[in-house]
Amino acid sequence: MKKHNLNTKLLVALLCTAVMVMALALWPIEITKAVTNGQPDGNLHPYVGLADNGQFACSGTLLCPNVFLTAAHCFDDGDRVEVTFDTNGFFANPRESYFGTFYPDPQFCIGCGPGLAGFDSHDVAVVVLEGEGVPTSVVGTYGRLPTEGLVDTLPMGTEVTLVGYGVQNFVRGGGPPQVGDVFTRFFAPSRLVQSNNPISGEFIKLTANPAKGKGGICFGDSGGPDLLGDSNVILAVNSFVSNYNCAGVTYSYRVDTPEALSFISPFLSYCP
Fold this sequence. Notes:
Layout: E1 2-4, H1 8-19, E2 39-40, E3 48-52, E4 57-64, E5 67-70, E6 80-84, E7 95-104, E8 109-110, H2 115-119, E9 120-121, E10 125-129, H3 136-139, E11 159-164, E12 170-171, E13 178-179, E14 186-191, E15 203-206, E16 225-228, E17 234-241, E18 250-254, H4 258-264
Antiparallel strand pairs: 1-7, 2-14, 3-4, 3-6, 4-5, 5-10, 6-7, 7-10, 8-9, 11-14, 11-16, 12-13, 15-18, 16-17, 17-18
């Protein structure tokens, strides 16, 4: 664990997120956007953290003191990653941080096939934290993995809670929209949307309609959890959106599938 003051690393991160936004995927540095149409999380989901490798930043969920769940597209295999659970993220000064190594699903692939079905696959990863990891005195509790096939038992319209760090809004007027508030933990309600898309076996589809009081995700929320209702059960990790302004539907990689659970399970041996 390390505590340090706000420094030039933050300035570099902010500049990168502003200029490196890439199409559709909630890429880490691009600003893996924060929850839109949400509200400050405070201490509602203390086990949701912000991870960065000095260049990119993503959200994620602590499963136990030493295992942090996130998305595979966030960093490179073997990257040393810094994680904080301060609700103000990079703006916490001093910031309490933990360090670990990033391990993506070896089958992760972007653009390996046509259409949405080939756009993003096996988008799940873990960070194994060093030393004793993060105690419950810091996070209170931990996120929980779902039972296998849980999503398939849920009806359309099931309430889901989105949690993440990043950009909460865009400033408009006098040119292209500019990134607004960023890198604090927010949460927002959403609902499952029925989908017959070929990717429904890997991803859940969520509404992102502010007019109906629902939030969404955008650049910077990548890897953050989609929680079942008000529980700490993780249905999926934020993955990608369907348009540049993050106002359409949200797609998140399911962690209740046999494939996802078989990737994650061996890392649980690092849990005390």
